[in-house]
Structures are given as C-alpha cells and as structure tokens.
Amino acid sequence: MSARTSFLSIGLMCATVPALAQGVDEKIVNMSGIAFNHSTGKQVLAACVANNPFCMAYVAGVVDAVGDLKTQGLRVPELCTYVPIEEKVAAVVSFGRAHPAEVEQLVGSALVIVANRRDNMACPERK
Question: How many domains does the chain contain in total?
C-alpha cells in the first residue's frame, strides 16, 4: 500500500468524525467549547484530562470511524477494539502526557488513533 492510500484512508476517517457528531447531544459539544471537525490534539487531550463528556464522544467516534473504514476494506491502523471506552480515553491521556511535543503536532483524530494503536497499548484478544 502506498503512503498516498494510507493518507486517503486517514483523510476519509477524519471527514467521517464530524458526521458522527450529529448524533451527540448539542449540550456536550457546547460544553466542550471544541468543534468536532477542527479539534487539535491539544484540545482533545485537555478535554480528556478534564473528564469532559466531549472526550468520550470524540474518542468513540474516531474509533468507530476507523472500524467502519476497515469493514469497507480500507487499510487502517489496527486499534484496540475490545477494551472499554474508558480505557481508550485513558490511553489518550497517557500517550498525551508522555508525548507532549507530538500532541502539539497532531489533529485530535490522529491523537486518538496513535494512542489506541495495538502496538501502543495492551490489547486483550476477543473472547
């Protein structure tokens, strides 16, 4: 697979996340002060550290979008899928605290993907 195809997959995933936000309670989005489609890694990390409901919705949306792309046959990063959403959020916080310089360079969806890659956290096998 070429780098161009990989970037296309990630681009499609990033475009999907705002659409997923349509089903989220508007109060959550307003409380966060963050737009789903323009979130930086720093904003997502801050929301997760503060236990803002936006964080859990955002992380779930990104993980679901990556899963949807995978079922469509696109090559996407292998994420931990069989862990509770709270563990996925904890992975974002842990990765963000351990790699602050990288967080500055990432968009929010990329932070979620990198933090939840199978090779970045312990992933149980499906039971």
Answer: 1
- What confidence tens digit (pLDDT) does each residue in 101-119 have? 999 999 999 999 999 987 6
Residue 12 placed within a domain = yes
> What average pLDDT does the chain have?
75
Q: Is residue 126 part of a domain?
A: no
Beta bridge partners of 40: 107
DSSP of 32-81: HT--GGG-BHHHHHHHHHTT-HHHHHHHHHHHHHHHHHHHTT-----B--
